[in-house]
Design brief:
Oligomer: single chain
Number of domains: 1
Radius of gyration: 18 Å
Largest sheet: none
Helix content: over 70%
Length: 233
């Protein structure tokens, strides 16, 4: 019974993360036909398709484990590793391409300053997924790092939702609070079931939450702007 309950938690949190992503991107991507939105570039379309594939894979993998189909989970994991690399490459390319976007950014940041925010999220995602793959034979660590990877990339859908609802002034508060809520959920689950504070969720979750004010500080620094200007010529 404990194993079944544990697996149900990971499937539940995976579905919840997927819902947050879907709702956040609905006005600008998934349900854009119902909203007055400017056309998307091919790169943005590709980014949306690749990340959507990753999201479906993430939910499917937690479902396989929930029904104890470990063999299917392991076979699909090979494709998942390849897809994760594509997600990172396309994500970085899309973030850099956004430098030419005329749309306003939250916190009064310029496009060059704001670039620090998505790049930090992509870096965290890449680090967590790479660690999860390296520890794939240690299920207790593997699954926790995969959940953290998804929490790390909630920034873009939340940002789209804030822009759509004209609440950009709450950007930093909401962007910090949403991952914090998911991390607390993970910590509470471990504590209620096992009476432990798992270091992966504790330290990894703290890294994600603290990264938000830190990435804003980084983006507004002269050093970061100089780096971006050097990168883009």
């Amino acid at each position: 019974m404990a194993a079944v309950a544990r697996n149900r938690f990971y499937l539940t949190i995976a579905l919840t993360l997927a819902i947050v992503v879907f709702v956040g991107f609905s006005p600008t991507y998934y349900l854009r036909a119902f909203f007055d939105q400017p056309p998307l570039t091919r790169l943005v379309h590709l980014h949306g398709l690749v990340f959507s594939a990753w999201l479906l894979l993430f939910v499917a993998q937690t479902r396989f484990i929930a029904v104890h189909n470990v063999r299917a989970h392991m076979k699909l994991g090979i494709a998942g590793a390849v897809l994760a690399i594509i997600v990172v490459i396309v994500g970085v390319a899309t973030a850099i391409a956004s430098l030419s976007s005329p749309r306003p950014h939250s916190l009064g940041m310029t496009s060059q300053q704001f670039l620090a925010i998505p790049l930090t999220g992509i870096t965290l995602f890449a680090g967590f997924v790479a660690t999860a793959i390296a520890l794939r034979r240690r299920a207790a660590l593997h699954k926790r790092f995969m959940v953290l990877a998804m929490i790390a990339v909630l920034g873009p859908p939340i940002a789209r939702l804030l822009a759509f609802t004209h609440t950009r002034e709450l950007f930093l508060i909401v962007q910090t609070a949403v991952p914090a809520i998911f991390v607390i959920w993970c910590l509470l689950n471990d504590w209620i079931r096992y009476r432990i504070v798992h270091p992966v969720f504790a330290l990894g979750g703290m890294l994600i939450v603290l990264s938000w004010p830190l990435r804003v500080m980084l983006g507004k620094s002269d050093l970061w702007v100089s780096i971006v200007q050097s990168m883009t010529g």
